[in-house]
Each structure stands twice: as C-alpha cells, then as structure tokens.
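Trying the structure run again after the queue cleared.
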Amino acid sequence: MGVKNFKPTTPSLRFRTVSTFEEITRSRPWKALKRPLHHTGGRDAHGHNTAKHRGGGNKTAYRIIDFKREKAGISARVESIEYDPNRSARIALLSYADGEKRYILAPLGLKVADRVSSGTGSEIRVGNALPLAEIPLGTSIHNIEMRPGRGGQIVRSAGGAAQLLAKEGSQARLRLPSGEVRLIPLGCQATIGQVGNLDHENISLGKAGASRWRGIRPHVRGVAQNPHDHPMGGGEGKSSGGRHPCSPTGVLAKGYKTRKRKASDRLILKRRG
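Done. Tokens:
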C-alpha cells in the first residue's frame, strides 16, 4: 500500500499519482464470484440522461461481495487480496472450511493465510464480524448493518472506520467517519477493524483521460453555456451567472438542506459537521 509518483516528462504526468498495488496478491477475480456489469451511461429505461457527465470508460466485471457475513461459526482462510474496479477498497477472497469461497472487504492489516470468522462468539480480531452487543466500547468497526440481517450498508469505503461509543438499552451509539453520531440496534453485525487502502485519498488522477477511463465525462460550467442550455448561461462576455446558482433544470444549488425527511432521522443524535 503506497503511492507512486511520476517524473514530469509530459504535462499529463506532472501531477499524476497511482497506487503501487503492493498488497495485491492475485490479478484475476475468482470466476464463480464474477458477474457482468452493465454501464447505463447515466440514462434511465427511457433513454433520458438523468445522471449527467457519465458514459464510456473501461469495461468492468462485478465482484459479488459478502456484506452479510452469514456463515456463522465456520472458520475461513484468506486466500488472496485483490483489486476491485467498482470500489475504493480492496477485497479479500476467503476460503471456508466447507469449501465455499466468498469475497469480503479487506480491512487494514488483513494478510494472506490469516483466519477470520463471523457470528456470535467470534474473537475480537481484525476481519471478524459479530453483533454490536458483543463488541467492546471504543473498537473501530466497518461494514455495519442498519437492520439485523440486512447486510453491511455503511462505512464501506477505503480508510473508513466508525467507533463504538456506548450501549444504551437495545441501541448502540456510533460515531461515523463523517462525524455523525447515531443509534444502531445492538443486534446489527459489524466487522472489526478499519477498511484498508488508506492511500486512496492521496491519489491524484492528474489528467482528463484518467477520468474518462472511469466513465466520467467533461463537466461544462453553467455560466459558460448558452441561455438555451442552462439557466445561468448567456451574457455579454464573462458573467457570474446573474442569478442564484442552480442546476440545468433550475433546482437551486446552495443555501438550503436537501435531505428528505426519513424515519431514521430520529436515530441521528448529532449531524455531521
């Protein structure tokens, strides 16, 4: 796990950095856990562009990740640490004692030949998954369920870790990476440790082509467009917009909260900063 810098022999290499991939031990995914992945190009079923600036990019295959960790009581050996083009974290291939293989998110410090397990009674060790009720206070955790049995939904990106602050009745109090403090049922399962690939935040794409490889198309500013194409377009010479910042459809962009009212709002004790 590290970052490689380039000599600026061309303008595109001057600020470009890439991962050294030194923790990767297998280059091809396990075939049985690979599925084709269709890229929509940002278009819905009617062909309308509903997510702008998407399209193209390299072809990728989806790796089936075991977010539920439901093979309780069965020990598994880490066979390999692999790259996943669909997420910022690395993934680990587990080989269970009954012969089944599954992928999990690779936590920091997990290595080939390590043993991991899940379920009630598992040891408090990096890579093991168990209910919040059995995890000691202050432990760093990731891949956390929000409802028992649903599978991990939060804290899954590279370098992510939540901290278990307290246990109150049937709820656990967690501090998430965003700074938000919220309640999660004690029956929910979480994985011990911090998600690996910490250097992901230090990667600089360095050139426009690197974004195109990832399926991200150019983004043109609204004030640089014509009035026909954007509400902030037009004007003689350069313009600051002449109106409140907004999207191409006229939805205001700043100054008010956009989160919809959700039933889970009552579980949030402190909003993110």
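The chain is about 0% helix and 25% strand. Worth checking whether this holds up in the mutant runs.
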